[in-house]
């Protein structure tokens, strides 16, 4: 499966979409980090506020009633337990989070806030120290950790005393920020507990919404802009292909699109007009050359009849015929691709049979070994000539020739096999060029002018196909050359 599109429109849109995806991913990471930073800052500020001010004034009064009492062995005052009960009665439905400020009541303890196995969050502790220093409080020790609520001793006791709190779903799995400060060496620890709020889904949702909006606006606008560029380019491509096939400049493409594309189309139209003018001039010139050369050749053909020596007369007649045939081949090669009429639907099987019969009537060892009924639009005269050239070339060098017409998937193949010596692999491409011969002489009976294969290739390309030459498989005892005219079936 091809994931990378071929068109300019598809490649540009995909490249922009990928770049935008990478940019949005980086933006999402930065926004997430910023959100986490704000979340941590809010937690530190909440912990600092709890450590500076106890918002539960009723608990303060209860705690003042217990002043002077000794701390229990767990490190909490007895007044703290009373304060907990008072707080629960004051807010019986508070469950996990207290009513005010999102904090639990600050406590005082002889022992530090860290439980065995817990580590101090040094970076966050430094931020808390800086925040407290801004308020004029400079503790000698600061400890701060994140703890599962169900593992916190204070909340465990609260859950034991308050069934409604214990029944709160998921309270034990929530995270709790526990912060403690010691204001003097050996003094008590002031400990605050702040529930860690869940991450807001609005952060991710906002990023997704932002990405969708950017994609819709940017990719949509870019699509419209690229369509204004690629649509005229596609029309220019179709026009170029059509002109290559027909050399007809009577219907030029109207300039469209941005100024650069419009100027390109105008330049292409001018180039088409110039090419057609040059081709017309070439046809006129070739016609004049053909007329000027064939007329004296015809006169010579008449004059040699007065030569009494029959052998000399035959040689001169053969030379004149050779010149005439070479001239016809050159003019035909120059006119290939300038067909004066459109291709017509033809029965290729009948065309191949007719050409084979011509050689059979002349006593040549040419055999039709396979043929299918295939109808295809072709220039009959030109295709017939190409097939004749291939068969004549095979007869000249090999003697025995087998002709086939078959279909291979989406390709129509006119195949000519011979049993001759073939062509050296390094010379196959050169044999398709003009004036290249398998035999060094210029005698048409042996070497020819070297235009037969070139004409056949030009005719095949005129029909959108190709001429393929290959030596037959020696391993299967099939020696010789295989020449194929391959035409697209559709």
From TrEMBL:
GO terms for cellular component: plasma membrane. InterPro entries: 2C_sensor_his_kinase, HAMP_dom, HATPase_C_sf, HATPase_dom, His_kinase_dom, HisK_dim/P_dom, HisK_dim/P_sf, Sig_transdc_His_kin-like_C. Residues 71-122 are annotated as: Disordered. This is histidine kinase. Keywords: ATP-binding, Cell membrane, Kinase, Membrane, Nucleotide-binding, Phosphoprotein, Transferase, Transmembrane, Transmembrane helix. Its EC number is 2.7.13.3. GO terms for molecular function: ATP binding; phosphorelay sensor kinase activity. The chain crosses the membrane at residues 203-226. It holds the Pfam family HATPase_c. Residues 227-280 form the HAMP domain. It catalyses: ATP + protein L-histidine = ADP + protein N-phospho-L-histidine. It is a multi-pass membrane protein. Residues 288-490 form the Histidine kinase domain. Gene3D superfamilies: 1.10.287.130, Histidine kinase-like ATPase, C-terminal domain. PROSITE patterns: HAMP (PS50885), HIS_KIN (PS50109). It is found in: Cell membrane. The keyword Phosphoprotein applies.
